[in-house]
């Protein structure tokens, strides 16, 4: 999840990702998107089409997790 969503931005992480991000960024999320969804960190936000696949967005729990990671990395 960190490699998939952690990018330079105003908050330090990406709020949304699609299946095609695996190809765009060369990173496969681990655990899988289905596992992250099952843990309540992301939710499926729709189907964009065969090239992009599904759109995922962070849930409140996912935002809290990513914010804590960004804060820890900034403090290091």
Features:
alpha+beta, Arc Repressor Mutant, subunit A
Folded structure, characterized:
By secondary structure, the protein is of the alpha+beta class. It has a single domain, classed as Orthogonal Bundle (Arc Repressor Mutant, subunit A), CATH 1.10.10. It is 41% helix and 22% strand. It contains 4 helices and 3 strands; from the N terminus they run αβααββα. It has helices at residues 2-5, 21-25, 33-38, 60-75; strands at residues 16-18, 42-49, 53-58. Strands 1-3-2 form a 3-stranded antiparallel sheet. The protein is globular. The chain starts with a helix and ends with a helix. The relative contact order is 0.24.
Indicate the topology.
Blueprint: H1 2-5, E1 16-18, H2 21-25, H3 33-38, E2 42-49, E3 53-58, H4 60-75
Antiparallel strand pairs: 1-3, 2-3
Summarize the structure.
This protein has 76 residues and is an alpha+beta fold. Helices cover 41% and strands 22% of the residues.
Which fold name fills CATH's third level, the topology? Arc Repressor Mutant, subunit A
Percent range of helical residues: 40-55%
The N- to C-terminal Cα distance equals: 20 Å
Mean pLDDT: 77
Q: Spatial order of the strands in the main sheet?
A: 1-3-2
CATH C-level: Mainly Alpha
**Structural domain tally:** 1
Give the SSE string.
HEHHEEH
Query: Count of helical segments?
Result: 4
């Amino acid at each position: 999840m960190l490699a998939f969503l952690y990018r330079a931005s105003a908050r330090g992480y990406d709020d949304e990702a699609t299946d095609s991000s695996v190809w765009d960024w060369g990173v496969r999320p681990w655990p899988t998107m289905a596992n992250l969804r099952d843990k309540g960190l992301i939710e499926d936000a729709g189907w964009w089409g065969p090239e992009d696949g599904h759109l995922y967005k962070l849930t409140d729990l996912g935002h809290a997790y990513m914010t804590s990671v960004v804060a820890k990395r900034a403090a290091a």
